[in-house]
Design a protein that fits this description.
It is built from 9 helices and 5 strands, in the order αααααββααβαβαβ. The protein is an alpha+beta fold and 253 residues long. The chain has a 5-stranded mixed beta sheet, with helices on both faces.
């Protein structure tokens, strides 16, 4: 088997995720769980290529002997090589499901719950989206002043769509041009399937109490992100939040 380029890995990961979602919709939960595991594996290998600046991932062709340790299906090893191992701590509940996957599970008679498989497919989708949004933040901050806040809130309602919350000195919540600026970046970076996961863009002034609350929770300025306590946010903001991620949070005097 020939080695795979980062673009090929990314494409295959998306295709396997689509396959897993189709199997899930058909209530073939064991098959969905199995195929989704490969979507995660391919996504991690894509990330490794980016981190190590590789033009191709050693699968079985040139260079495969020299990189034997990378020829693995084990998520723990791939997480370590990808440089995002620490981020697993922000998703302990999700990864407790994901880490049950093994390439040999195809021989297992163990049944999978719909809830577990749904969580796993959502984990893959949101991991890809958060990585892209981190790149958007980096791009915006390279041409403007740094963002004060960037967060994702999943509203617990019938639609279950994400809000993206942003605050920056150069964004004006009362001007349409500010919304167009952010919307354009999202459309350039996210696929159609990823864009439909979002409900709206929420721009906030620096003085907004939501901004100061999130700034006081955590400082995030180095490209990492953190999952927030949805129950605490729901109580604070008086509307139901199912999940929340903080991707940027910093103060400037």
């Amino acid at each position: 088997m020939e080695n795979l380029t980062p673009n090929q890995l990314e494409k295959l990961s998306r295709e396997r995720l689509t396959d897993a979602e189709a199997l899930f919709a058909a209530k073939r939960f064991e098959g969905a769980f199995y195929v989704c595991g490969y979507a995660i594996e391919l996504g991690l290998k894509y990330r490794i290529c980016k981190i190590l600046d590789w033009d191709e991932y050693p699968v079985g062709g040139k260079g495969s002997e020299k990189h034997k340790s990378f020829k693995t299906h084990k998520f723990d090893d791939l997480l370590h090589y990808s440089g995002i191992e620490k981020q697993k701590n922000a998703f302990i509940a999700d990864w407790s499901v994901v880490m049950k996957w093994d390439s040999e599970i195809r021989y297992s008679s163990e049944t999978q719950t719909p809830e577990g498989v749904k969580l796993m497919t959502e984990q893959v989708t949101m991991k890809e989206i958060t990585e892209k949004i981190k790149d958007i933040i980096k791009d915006l901050e390279s041409t403007h002043n740094p963002l004060l806040i960037c967060a994702l809130f999943l509203r617990e309602d019938d639609l279950e769509k994400w809000d993206i919350i942003i605050s920056a000195s150069w964004l004006n919540p009362t001007e349409m041009e500010s919304y167009r600026n952010i919307s354009k970046k999202l459309q350039e970076s996210l696929s159609d399937a990823e864009l439909v996961q979002f409900s709206r863009i929420v721009l906030l002034n620096a003085e907004d109490p939501v901004v100061s609350y999130l700034q006081n929770l955590e400082t995030i300025s180095n490209g990492s992100f953190k999952e927030l306590r949805a129950d605490e946010l729901s109580e604070k903001f008086k509307f139901p939040i199912k999940k929340a991620y903080l991707l940027r949070s910093q103060k400037f005097s």
